From TrEMBL:
Organism: Paenibacillus arenosi
Family under the similarity heading: Belongs to the Cob(I)alamin adenosyltransferase family.
Origin superkingdom: Bacteria
GO molecular function annotation: corrinoid adenosyltransferase activity
Keyword flag Methyltransferase: no
Domain Cobalamin adenosyltransferase-like: 3-168
Pathway(s) it belongs to: Cofactor biosynthesis; adenosylcobalamin biosynthesis; adenosylcobalamin from cob(II)yrinate a,c-diamide: step 2/7
Top enzyme class: transferase
Record-linked SUPFAM superfamilies: Cobalamin adenosyltransferase-like
Reactions catalysed, as given in the entry: 2 cob(II)alamin + reduced [electron-transfer flavoprotein] + 2 ATP = 2 adenosylcob(III)alamin + 2 triphosphate + oxidized [electron-transfer flavoprotein] + 3 H(+); 2 cob(II)yrinate a,c diamide + reduced [electron-transfer flavoprotein] + 2 ATP = 2 adenosylcob(III)yrinate a,c-diamide + 2 triphosphate + oxidized [electron-transfer flavoprotein] + 3 H(+)
Annotated protein name in UniProt: Corrinoid adenosyltransferase
InterPro entries on file: CblAdoTrfase-like, CblAdoTrfase-like_sf, PduO-typ
Lineage, highest ranks first: Bacteria, Bacillati, Bacillota, Bacilli, Bacillales
Length: 197
């Protein structure tokens, strides 16, 4: 199998069920999930402390599931009705379980925090922002073509996972979250929740 095929030399690429320009919104969108997967690999590599082994295992599973998300978005619009999708509702439910577990152990939030802390936490915050960008692209795609809605749900929940996991890394490694210096006490009762919907 050759790495190069020359089939994309004219600026086209293959979807499941058709060929489109490489700057097509669908290609752009699953490309952003590929980028997120690569950043997740960086976060996985940064969790090299034995206290973070559980997070390493979660991140590896997420990498497989991100590949599933990209695969589900790679069907041409006219092939969506015949597609056999990989992203299932239980994958979203599992993310919610992990989020709840991390939040149960995280200190309550009272102010907005800055990305940072332990290198793995910083990497997870990068994942969170790239995930939000990918989510925006998925929403844009959904306005123009058909998509598998479970992918959108999964990616929406995943950004919350990255936020809570970043805070969990700091907690496990005894590194303080960095509070935004000019933040008011936005979470007045110390609510244990993320910064995003």
């Amino acid at each position: 199998m050759n790495i190069y095929t020359r089939t994309g030399d004219q600026g086209l690429t293959a979807l499941k069920g058709g060929r489109v320009a490489k700057d097509h919104i669908r290609v752009h969108t699953y490309g952003e999930l590929d980028e997120l997967n690569a950043f997740t690999a960086v976060a996985h590599a940064a969790c090299d402390d034995e206290r973070l082994q559980g997070l390493r295992e979660q991140l590896l599973q997420i990498q497989h599931e991100l590949f599933d998300c990209g695969s589900d978005l790679a069907f041409a619009d006219e092939s969506q009705g015949k597609a056999v999708f990989k992203v299932m509702p239980e994958m979203v439910t599992n993310l919610e379980k992990w989020i709840d577990q991390h939040e149960a152990d995280n200190a309550p939030l009272t102010r907005f925090i800055l990305p940072g802390g332990h290198p793995a936490a910083a990497a997870l915050h990068v994942c969170r922002t790239v995930c939000r960008r990918a989510e925006r692209s998925i929403v844009t795609l959904s306005h123009q073509e058909s998509i598998h809605q479970e992918v959108l749900k999964y990616v929406n929940r995943l950004s919350d996972y990255f936020f809570t996991a970043a805070r969990r890394v700091n907690g496990l490694t005894m590194v303080e979250d960095v509070e935004y210096a000019r933040s008011a006490h936005v979470f007045r009762t110390g609510v244990k929740k993320g910064q995003h919907e």
